[in-house]
């Protein structure tokens, strides 16, 4: 039944995209406004559904992490979309004057979007804002690990959008595989690197271009002389918001060896200031389900068995099994071959690795797979510039964490195993458009001089062109 419904929706939306290949700005604006109204009119319902899926996530946290960035993405598209649509002038080689060149942004047609569970609203709406601004129709596959949100969002979309504009699907791995195999005009996936490989393989059978927003081990690097207390507070916030279930959360920290103890103490103070009631804090998020909770407790057990020194950041209880709550913990100088240091953590564990020179820290970052994010804490402008030039990451925030993702004028995307392609703002508009090159040639054109039969005039012209 799912496969037949999926294919029917695809055929309907695909036909609609071909029947109306270039929606004007009023149509695009209307879709964006309806998407914004859906969120604004049902904010409490969506926040409650997301909290239910996690077992508990503070309403304020969902407002900051899902509601506001979704609305900002739409507002940014509404402010700038009409300008993005305009043909873009391009220069013409002198040898082809008086021809005129331009780039015409054209909708691709039908875009597929696969959404993870950790920020289910924003990671659906952000790509949708780009798709709608670019004039596309869309099909969205929501995660099976956000069932309460899936029910409510699907219902709201059906009420607000025509089936020829937007369709929502749910289901597990089999449904995701079927969705990935559809011959979309573009497919945007957010999730793990392992699943991203399968999505890309399925898309490749139809030569579907993909944007993959994956993850990896995003490092935070503290340099000698940086504001240690400020760095600790910002890193702890970035790690503990959503209980670390964030693709761009700092995955480990590199700290000057002489400042290791001070950093540990500053992290403890920051964590207890942000969440004074520890695991009982109403602002602290639960781990989404038993599978992820068990994975994290397994990482903890392996690290303990390897003799890693642990430092708890909360007082009191360190775990609440029934509520899937885990207290944040620092892992001091763990060996690099344990699972904690080999895979993305996606939880409130934070390895801290001491280093002796900044060159050693940069070498460590560059020795691993290229991460989705890099966080560099420093007061030295030259050293910051050198770090930006000599490391690779999907994005960078200097002297803070996470915040580059919230900038609609910056492209968001990975590099290497952390992803490919990018979106947000105009970058998303361009990704989900065909930037069609157009050359307008007048009746009288100099290109007649390079046609056969070739003679002395051609020879002289070639000599001039090659100078």
UniProtKB/TrEMBL annotation:
Keyword terms, alphabetized: NAD, Oxidoreductase
GO MF, one example: aldehyde dehydrogenase (NAD+) activity
The protein's Enzyme Commission number: 1.2.1.68
Annotated organism of origin: mine drainage metagenome
GO annotation, cellular component aspect: cytoplasm
BP GO annotations: aldehyde metabolic process
Protein family membership: Belongs to the aldehyde dehydrogenase family.
Residues in the signal sequence: none
Pfam families in the cross-refs: Aldedh
Positions in coiled-coil regions: none
Residue ranges occupied by any Aldehyde dehydrogenase domain in the UniProt entry: 9-437
UniProt protein name: Coniferyl aldehyde dehydrogenase (CALDH)
InterPro entries: Ald_DH/histidinol_DH, Ald_DH_C, Ald_DH_CS_CYS, Ald_DH_CS_GLU, Ald_DH_N, Aldehyde_DH_dom, Aldehyde_DH_NAD(P)
